[in-house]
Design a protein that fits this description.
Pfam families: Lactamase_B_2. The chain is of the alpha/beta class. It has eight helices and 14 strands.
Length: about 260
């Protein structure tokens, strides 16, 4: 099983409009961050997590033309407003809608916002996604997906754990607290890809100090930080982080 970081940035990306690089060195390409999304792959299965507004460029860079399923963590714009780019994937699948899953509230919100994606429009615009409510445990191809609800401001996001044979990958983005259920869900991972927005505390996202504490507690074999803003320079972080923890970047491939 492998993970590709499609996008490692926060909702405004890096740089922010206006060439705002913050503390990030613009000469380091690893600091150019699109909105957060990942691919999880086995030899036979490809799962896309979230449809960021940068999805077209992300999939072109990854040289990916089709996926077996799309999972949405929540309905915020930076995680779902690239949904129209799934139309080309539907065509690549021979006109078959892309299977998609989201937790019930997210399911409702996305379907309300983009009804044409799920219902189609007339003869020439068939449905793009076959949407279903995300269960606590389900399987896509040969990959088992386990789900936990995470507090994210006034809503919840889906925390994901992917398992294949004896290998496990966790993806935790857009949450602000670590619940008992989340601790059990993410304990003992081979790889944990986790939101670390910035150094300063934030009301709806984890900050670096809290994430480092959870990594120490939950003991993944390897941890990669994502959903980072313009205050998180790649090279600076890489020299400061403990062994086994690294900043992610767009296009990073993580393989078992």
């Amino acid at each position: 099983m492998s993970v590709r970081i499609l996008g490692s940035g926060t909702s405004s990306g890096v740089p922010r409009i206006g060439q705002d690089w913050g503390a990030c060195n613009p000469a380091d390409p690893r600091n150019r961050r699109t909105r957060a999304s990942i691919l999880v792959r086995s030899q036979t299965t490809t799962i896309l997590v979230d449809t960021s507004p940068d999805l077209r460029e992300q999939l072109l860079a990854a040289e990916v033309s089709t996926v077996d399923a799309v999972l949405w963590t929540h309905d915020h714009a930076d995680h779902c407003h690239g949904i129209d780019d799934l139309r080309q994937i539907m065509h690549a699948r021979g006109g078959q809608p892309v299977p998609g899953w989201a937790r019930p509230f997210t399911f409702e919100q996305i379907c309300k916002r983009f009804p044409y994606i799920f219902e189609g429009r007339g003869k020439y615009y068939p449905p793009v996604v076959d949407m279903g409510a995300m269960a606590d445990v389900f399987t896509v191809g040969d990959i088992v997906v386990r789900v936990v609800d995470q507090p994210h401001g006034g809503i919840t996001s889906a925390g994901l754990r992917f398992e294949l044979a004896n290998y496990s990958v966790g993806y935790a983005t857009d949450f602000h607290a670590m619940t008992a259920e989340m601790r059990e869900h993410y304990r003992g991972l081979d790889l944990w890809v986790v939101d670390a927005l910035r150094r300063a505390p934030h009301p709806t996202h984890p900050h670096l100090e809290s994430v480092l504490g959870w990594i120490k507690e939950l003991e993944p074999q390897r941890a990669v930080l994502v959903h980072m803003d313009q205050s998180m320079d790649y090279a600076t972080l890489a020299t400061e982080l403990p062994a086994g923890i690294e900043p992610g970047y767009d296009g990073l491939e993580l393989r078992a």
